Amino acid sequence: MTGLQVAWFVVAAALVAVYAILDGFDLGIGVLEPVLARTGEQRSMLHGTVGPVWDGNEVWLIVVGGVTFAVFPAVYASVLSGFYLVFMLVFFGLIFRATALGLHSGGAKGSLGWRAAFWGGSLLPAFLLGVVAGDLIRGVELSSTGDFTGGLGSLFGPFAVAAGVLSLAMFVNQGAAWASLKTRGELHARAGRVSRLTGGLLLLVFILMGVYAWQAAGAHFSDLIARPLGWLAMALAAGGILFQEGSSWLGHDRHAFLGASAAVVGLVGIWAVGTFPDIVRASNDEASSLTVASASASPNTLVAITVIGAVGIPVVAACAFLAYRVFRGRVDEIDGGY
Amino acid sequence: MTTAVLLARIQFAFTIGYHFLYVPISLGLGLVMVLAARRYRRSGLETDRAGAELWLKLFAVTFAVGVASGLTMEFAFGTNWASYSRFVGNIFGAPLAAEGLLSFFVESTFLGIVLFGKTRISTRLYYASTWVVFGAAVFSAFWILVANSWMHTPAGYVVEDGRATLTNIWAAIFTSSLAPRFVHTLVATFMTGSFFAAGVAAYYMLKRRHLEFARKAMTTALVVALVTSVAQPFIGHWHALEVAADQPVKIAAYEGVYTTGSHVPLSIYGWVDEDGQHPVSISIPSGLSLMLGLSPGKVVQGLDAVPPEDRPPVQILFQTWHLMIAVGLLLAVLALGGVYLLWRRRLEYSVWYLRILTFAIPLPVLACVLGWMTTEIGRQPWIVQGELRTADAISTNVAAGQVATTLSIFVVIYALLFATWLQVVRRTVRKGLVEVSPPSPEEERKKLVDADRERLLALPGFAGTAHLERLASSRRTGETSSTRPRQDAPEDAEKEGS
Lengths: 338, 498
What we know:
The structure holds two protein chains of two kinds. By secondary structure, chain A is mainly alpha-helical. Chain A has helices at residues 3-36, 40-50, 54-71, 73-82, 84-103, 112-138, 158-182, 185-216, 218-226, 228-250, 253-275, 299-326; strands spanning 278-280, 290-291. In chain B, strand 5 (382-384) and strand 6 form a beta hairpin. The longest helix of chain B is centred in the first third of the chain and has 41 residues, at 3-43. At the A-B interface, helix 3, helix 4, helix 5 and helix 12 of A face helix 2, helix 3, strand 2 and helix 13 of B.
């Protein structure tokens, strides 16, 4: 295992975390829309909070895909083919969402069908990405060539479904915190109440999931608690939620959103720290696991992609900064659109 | 070919072919949008602003569908082509990652700014942002064609343990087919955009609406259309020379040449008699030899140079190739006719020509798809030329039934998406320009009073409003403005100021 391989594992995990924070809030907004928005005007305001940024947020997922392909091609090949139908459902959801947002923005005018598409298209990825994470944590059956050998049913075991619920709770909480940060009036008040509820719910699911993982995903759990970084990640997850709750009570929406985002980083960290150095854990035979070392691209490729990353990541950071700076502040109404 | 391979190929062809409908339109409209924004920046006229807005909106909806259908492509190599991904991962992933890191973020960020930030940024930044969006889109196309070109003309690697391993990144990026492929594709997208714009302008001319805008848009569009569609055959020829050198079997299949030899004719129109192994066509004697070697004696390699299992399907290639050329030449003639009518100042009244232009909007897209089919089917049976067969590239653990399921869902969703896109585009074009009438003198005066209020309220220690009242009446507006709520910087003021 070389330094570059480890560094790229860290970068990839960080990209996943940023994706979960950013697309997290806009998937969460999608799931919560029926709860939060009672009138066309409120729906319009809610859409306005994600309108200029959702497309950029989804780019993080594309980049997670591209970087995984470049750095850990074996993982890219195994996971995407192994979770074939699961990922296809994620993509179908995202396509519906993109259409609902891009072609029918101004939600107020959106028909019931498109509103349902926006809701379902947000719910599917939020739940299914957690299922994928749950399976990776628990381990899957791998052949010696790295192909999944279990059937579709084996991917929806109780542990994976529980992880899906956790990720759904995480995305929804993120969405509620974002809505409370970006809106005004009645919608803002409701979003605040909902975010305190979802925060509590997330904490509850998180604790239950911890107990479950101790029982069901022993290998991951014991690695996690054996490492200081694992404790840091757990503290970040729990502390983030508590900070969010406290800030929300005090009316500090910005701090509440930061707390929720810290919790996301903690949760992704729990996956990354516990799984290292495996990326795809083989439950049948430890030797078949795809690890940071065995799944990595060759040294020349790693150098090339490091150069691309050294140029690209600052560009990405600058873009994200610019976008969130131009669109800072609360949303009154949509002043633009597709 | 097994069912699994066939289904994987159909799904990939369908999803990327669908994606490729929107790519040339959005890239081409990107150019139109930038040119329109430039016109507005120079003139400052309301018509030009509204015109730029119209192109931006058409660009954005097309871009949105492109993003939605492009998302799956980024992952399709893993979901359906896992064996391929394992083989090329060391090379193919890097350009995809580069595309994401270096252009997608820039593109989506600045598109968000252009679409939603009009009231938050200056006109200058707004104009610059349109350029950035367009530039990033072109750069993104570059990286995708880097990856695609490597599949046709792989270089800069060795095969170790059944995987291609990178030896030279520059050789792997700048393969021999990249330059002609990139230029040929990019010019095709500009043709698409210019004919789209010309078609929309023709629609307005026929309806006698927005004539001022339509005239300007038509002139720009036809000039771009003429330059690109006349240049395209020459660029295509350059590309063909490259293909003849790198993938001679492909050219042989395009023209249905089975036997290696000299004095090979160039077919104009016809079909291939696959059993008799020769094309049945109207042709130019020794034409292909002349095109490829400037001499009738030039020896052209035929399909017999490789065993039958290494040959692509001939009939379909012969058709897509010749049809692409025919459509391309037809477009050049159309552009030439348009510029002639423009020069004779008869264009606006040439009803038939304008009608043809509106129906010509999909033609460049058709040519793009045909060209794409030609190059990709021409590479078969290889997925990486000479290294990996398409049949050996699929995900072995994804059952044919699963692919059949997702393929049918794709067909339904994509048809729905296409209908929605078409509906939005038609509605946008029908609605036409949204011009904001200039503010009346009355409103101008009100604005001045408000500005005074703003300044005074900002003074430290300012409390009374009596002075304000006096000031307001001194502006002779005849109304008291003390009850007006505090206003943030009015958005119109910013736009007019620039």
